[in-house]
Amino acid sequence: MRNELDFAPFYRSSVGFDRVFDLLSNPQRLQAVDAWPPYDIVKVGDNEYRISIAVAGFEIGDLDITQEHNVLIVKGGKGEEGEGEYLYRGVASRSFERRFELADHVKVENASLNNGLLNIEMRHEIPEAMKPRKITVGAGANDHASLQIEATKKTT
């Protein structure tokens, strides 16, 4: 049975969404399902997001956050603790790496570690050149020429 989706109909009516379709159709880019460490993704405002990752037992120096173009990579790793022999180890402290695909123009603004939660604040900032703008409809090339002729008539 074939599980691949056909995005061909969407290509006919969309422009610039190639990256999205590539993400959806390329299963190798998806990481294996790993439930550790648990995390939440919250939409805080219209253009504001927060990722909260439960990293109990990790300190600031144990965590590394990197943004590479449209991918946010969060890594955590602890050194060996020599405080004795563990009879039972219930607090997970294994190394991890989490990857989050980000939309274009999403920027990480802040990261903080409070009460075992790593909070990463992000904002989707649309550049001024990409914001909607009003386009006036003219009569074409002749419209521009007629404006120049009228300007010339007024100066003589």
Automatic annotation (TrEMBL):
Entry keyword set: Stress response
Source organism, top-level taxon: Bacteria
Residue ranges annotated for the SHSP domain, each copy included: 30-140
CDD domains tied to this protein: ACD_IbpA-B_like
Calcium among keywords: no
Pfam family, one: HSP20
InterPro entries for this protein: A-crystallin/Hsp20_dom (IPR002068), ACD_IbpA/B (IPR037913), HSP20-like_chaperone (IPR008978)
Family stated for the protein in its record: Belongs to the small heat shock protein (HSP20) family.
Name of the protein: Heat shock protein Hsp20
Species of the source: Rhizobium grahamii CCGE 502
